[in-house]
Amino acid sequence: MTTTGEIADFALDVSYDDLSEETRDALKRRVLDSVGIAVGAMGSETTEKIRTTVESMNDDGACRLWGSDRRASPPDAAMLNTALVRYLDYMDSYLAPGETPHPSDNVAAIVACGELVDASGEELLTAIGVAYEVQGELGYAAPVRDKGWDHVTHTVVSATAGAATILGLERDAFRNAVGIAATAHNALRVTRTGGINEWKGVASANAARNAVYSVLLARDGLEGPVDVFEGQKGWKQVVSGEFEVEYTPAERVHDVMAKKYVAETYAQSAIEAVIELTAEEDIDPTAIDAIRLDTFAGAKLIIGGGEGSRYEVETKAQADHSLPYMLAVAALDGEVTEAQYDTDRIREDDVQRLLRTVEVEEDPALTERFEAGEMPAVVELDVDGETHRIEKDAFPGHPRESMTWDQLEGKFEATTRDRYDDAHRDRLVDTVRTLDESDVSELVALLD
Q1: Domain 265-392 bears CATH identifier 3.40.50.200
Q2: Which residues does the UniProt record annotate as the domain MmgE/PrpD N-terminal (predicted)?
């Protein structure tokens, strides 16, 4: 079974010395990916709405609001900065068979709490490792999607664990923090079903804010239901069902994927397949008559039409949750970046015509392969009476093909080039690569 005590005992027992060199390196890469994506999201319409709200409530505070010189309280900084990490839908993902949480949703909350106590880089990486482990274990052992709960239901628990770790909460306060967070902040799956709107990209930021607030309440002595998981009408009875987990020092970070394309997690291999096939066969995309995708159950359910039509696409929130749109624009443009989510691009006739030719079907054999660790996709393009076919089982960034530092730095350069010059970008990369020799304040000072 899992209890608040087991989470606290695991987190309190982990030290930086327990992390292997490979794990430390993986955690640094997760930090670089997260802050690079956040920089790319600065100035976007949705995140600016959140910035307006947060700034209106904060004249000053302990934590920097990334992308400005303004400061705010730790919960409000966690809200905005997590939204920046999450909004582009370019964040990392943990590929469990029945759930796909995004562990990078934890990073900004832990950074904010690290600012509050002037934490070292080693302390930051250790706390992020705790959060990744808790979120990965919950996603694997206690999926909640099919029960009607959103995956950020896990995030509020994992972010609480990471925030409590970096703030140095003692065991009783740690348990109270998890109890408060896991009792009060369970999110409904309706966020990602039917018509999709802006909240899809903001729900995890709200979870991060709630996590930090729960930890601060517990730090100041507020008690919470420490039997939240096993208690009567608790998390296991109401939210998840029975489950057991086994925490190890940050091992789950090695099972996390980085996205190559600005697109929903389950679309990555299919997009790679469409772009590769169109290029290899020298296909004129305007001549494509139909696109067919055989995929696994989760992809069909979430972005292929299983939780609502994915053919009515007019906004970014709808587009990055629609396999028909993503495959159509990938074929036409040969890439899927932020530019493919401009409103004018989304509504152009060529992509609107082609997306309506896309057929998405679940293949049980591909579902079995996904549950065994692949991300399979079989794509067929009908062009002038001919059918072109390609099959993929992964993509660059999948845990089987992890991104190297060079690849991640290339992604980082692409998301930050409009804001930072080469010298500033190099300082940020160097700070992350040597984070165990730096502190949180040095990292945050560069996120202006």
Answers
A1: no
A2: 6-247
